Amino acid sequence: MSRIRTLQIYIITRLLLAPIMVWLVTTLVFLLLRATPGDPVDSILGPRAPALVKQALREQLGLTGSIWHQYRSYMGQLLNLDLGSSLVRQGQTVWGVIQDFFPATVELALLGMTIALVVGITLGCISATHPNSLWDGGGRLFGIITYALPAFWIGMLAQLIFGVWLQWFPLGTRFPITQSPPQGPTGLYVLDSLLAGNWMQTITSLHYLALPSLTLGVLISGIFERIVRVNLQKTLQSDYVEAARARGIPEWRILMFHALQTALIPVVTVMGLTLAALLGGAILTEVTFSWPGLGNRLYDAISLRDYPTVQGIIIFFAGIVSLASIAVDIFNAVIDPRIRY
């Protein structure tokens, strides 16, 4: 069987398995929410509300039937791409919640990923080209520390130092509450302000975005530093690199145009899945910085027992991760002829 044929079968199989994965996640979240203590009706009305009022609200929200009845009803909604409505925010659908809060998460994730790639690849290259040196030891130590440090602790420390003591960065929002935020089709303040040609809004948006994205980017940069260092060291010892050196090619050209391109192939895989996870909500970072993204909204929905919002956001996240995983696998299969499925 030809490689193209096997690749086609693999892609079709992955596409067919993706809905099954999302369904399993949906079912697990549905059951876990109802198995944990707490009552969404109490979150809405309070524990002292009359029993008749609580019962009427449960019937209105569809929480009176059996678990199986609720599950069938919810899965029927999902087949129509209906994620339901928020129990706490009356009149707002879950799709509306995603539309309102997801752009902030996208903005934070994209800038955080950019910072992580720049820092991680740079330090990885320095460590790989200076083996067994202080540079190499410092790069390995950086990778271990950033991977091990908890995001919430670093976030609070960064806010204390750079936001409270030095007052270099603002805290707790995306834009000054005394000013009108950028308006545009994407909901991304930096991009919308650039499209409108408003440079002051662009600078302000970046100023508010800088501290959480720097914190997030530095924390995940250690992953890329370790991957680049290991793969680049192996690549620099390969035969074709030695042949390039024998031909008198400058070392920087060998690094940039020969070794680094090969070493970055696994980085693409990790980058795709990491970006999907970030888009799925860097919950700890968003909650720590009070960043109004979808991860922060998920945290609030869990606290308030808002079943439809929690289920809808997690399904949305699962779909993003599933699609990113498929895209990464297809990309690797296309660019690397050694892969067989």
Q: Would you give an account of this structure?
A:
This protein is mainly α. The chain folds into two domains: 3-79, no CATH class; 97-303, MetI-like fold (Orthogonal Bundle). The chain is 75% helix and 0% strand. The protein contains 15 helices and no strands. It has helices at 3-35, 40-45, 51-61, 67-79, 94-129, 134-148, 151-165, 189-196, 199-236, 239-246, 251-263, 265-279, 283-288, 294-303, 307-335. Helix 5 (94-129) crosses helix 9 and helix 5 packs antiparallel against helix 12 (265-279). It is globular, with a radius of gyration of 24 Å. The mean pLDDT is 84.
CATH superfamily of the largest domain, by name, is MetI-like
Question: On the 0-100 scale, what is the average pLDDT?
Answer: 84
Shape: globular
CATH architecture of the largest domain: Orthogonal Bundle
Cα separation of the termini: 11 Å
* CATH level-1 class of the largest domain: Mainly Alpha
H/E element order: HHHHHHHHHHHHHHH
Q: Provide the domain count.
A: 2
Question: And the CATH topology of the largest domain?
Answer: MetI-like fold
Question: How would you summarize what this structure contains?
Answer:
This protein is mostly helical and 341 residues long. It contains 15 helices and no strands.
